[in-house]
Structures are given as C-alpha cells and as structure tokens.
Amino acid sequence: MGFLEAIILGIIQGLTEFLPVSSSGHLELAKYILGDTSVPEESLTYTVVLHFATALSTLVIFRKEVAQIFKGLFQFKINEEFFFSLKIILSMIPAVVIGLLFEEELESFFGGKILFVGAMLLVTAVLLLLADRAKTTNKDVTIGSSIIIGIAQAIAMLPGISRSGATISTSVLLGVDRNKAAKFSFLMVVPLIVGKIAKDLLGGDIHFASEEIGPMGAGFIAAFVAGLLACQWMIALVKKSKLIYFSIYCAIVGIIAITYTFIA
C-alpha cells in the first residue's frame, strides 16, 4: 500500500468514524476500489490502526469528559462522575464479549466482502431513518439504556453497520437527548479501541511489513486530523436532526455495492 492510498483511507476513516455511514464498511469498499489485496487479518490490522487514530481525536475533543470518567473511577465515591463511568463500562461489555468469543468469525467479514457490506449499509440506512423521525429525545443515558446501546455497538462490529449510527440511533430511539447521545456514542468506543490495540500488540496479532510503517503513519495522521473535524461536525448535525441525509447516503452506497457484486 502506497502513501497516497494510505492517506485516502485515513481521511475516509477520520470522516466516517464519526459520521453515521460505517467507517469499516467504507474502508472495505475503498480498499477494494484501490485494489488492496491484503488478507483479512492484514486488512483488519490497518482498520484497527486507523480506528486508534480517531479514538485519539475523540480524546482530544472530549478531554473534559474523559477526565470526568477517570475521576469517577478513581475517586471511589458514589457520585455523578461514578455513575457516568459505570455507564461507559457497562456499554463496553457486549462488544468485549462478542469480540473475544467471535474474533475469528468477525475477521472473516473483512477483506472484500462487498455484498455483505452493502447489505449492512442498508440496515444502517433504516436505523438512521427511524432515529431521524424520533420525537421525544430529552432523557439522560441510564444504566439500562447504556447496556442496550452497548449491544448496538457490538452488532456494529460488522463492516457496513455504522457504529456511531447504530449507537446514536439506538440512544435517540430510547428517548435520550441527541447531544448527550452523540457524546456518549463517541466516548464509549475509546476504551474498546485502546484495549483492542493493547491486546493485539501484546499478543503479536498486528502484522505488517516494515515498508508499511510509513504509509500506516501517514494514514494515521490523516485519520486523526479528519476525525477532529468530523467529530465536531457530527455533534452539530445530530442536534439539528439531520440524520435523514445520512440514511439516504447509506442506502445509495449500499445499493451500488450490492449491484456491483452482481455485474462485476
């Protein structure tokens, strides 16, 4: 993979991680179009590296909220910070369980499964459409809703189902305030990505040749910068209930991807 391809993929990841259009799905489509011939494990490695870049951009933008999480964890007091941290932890459990038990099965969905990605993008389109029509959205994230949102995040580990789209849509459908839904969605994934990176590094599961370090670094920087911009943009869009446009976009891309697999 060259520098140009890596930067293109990084920008795509940075934008689509926060916009509800499935970053993993778009990465798979982009890698297919760019002629990436990586085996599924290598393809997933690059996807994880770019996800780490956007996780870092999340930490920068939500540094106050992240500080609140750590404060809640290490203050050892039953207060608002503690319950916020507890909700974040509970939301992680479904994805952790699925990721550990079905890691190989999940990896098999990466690496050019365009038909599957297209079908999952249609699922994302439906979720966004339903969320866009939700009227009552003035609640806080509760213990119960954090678990349900976590289940949505676990399902979104499949390429083509937008993680932010699934979690924000689920939150909104549960009546959660749109602004709080967006922030919770972006914060809940950070520990998972950091944990995934740590696990793969310690377990030796991240594989790439020495010549890939440069392109991966370029892609990482591109994803980080694009993520900073997209995260703030997405929060503003969710507040204004503009999810319908992303629903239409996902439907169009999904139909194109499905159609392409039958005529290619």
Structure description:
With 264 residues, the protein is mostly helical. It contains 13 helices and no strands. The protein has helices spanning 3-18, 23-33, 40-61, 63-74, 80-101, 103-107, 114-132, 143-155, 163-173, 178-188, 190-203, 213-239, 243-263. Helix 3 (40-61) crosses helix 11 (190-203) and helix 10 (178-188) packs antiparallel against helix 12 (213-239).
- Rg on CA atoms, Å: 18 Å
The largest β sheet comes out as: none
Count of separate DSSP helical elements? 13
Helix share of residues? over 70%
**Structural class by helix and strand composition:** mainly alpha
- Unreliable stretches: none
What is the domain total for the residues? 1
Average pLDDT, to the nearest integer?
A: 82
Summarize the structure.
The protein is an all-alpha fold and 264 residues long. It has helices at 3-18, 23-33, 40-61, 63-74, 80-101, 103-107, 114-132, 143-155, 163-173, 178-188, 190-203, 213-239, 243-263. The chain has one domain (3-263).
Topology (SSEs and partners):
Elements (H helix, E strand, L loop, with lengths): L2 H16 L4 H11 L6 H22 L1 H12 L5 H22 L1 H5 L6 H19 L10 H13 L7 H11 L4 H11 L1 H14 L9 H27 L3 H21 L1
Helix pairs in contact: 1-2, 1-3, 1-12, 2-7, 3-11, 3-12, 4-5, 5-8, 7-9, 7-13, 8-9, 9-10, 10-12
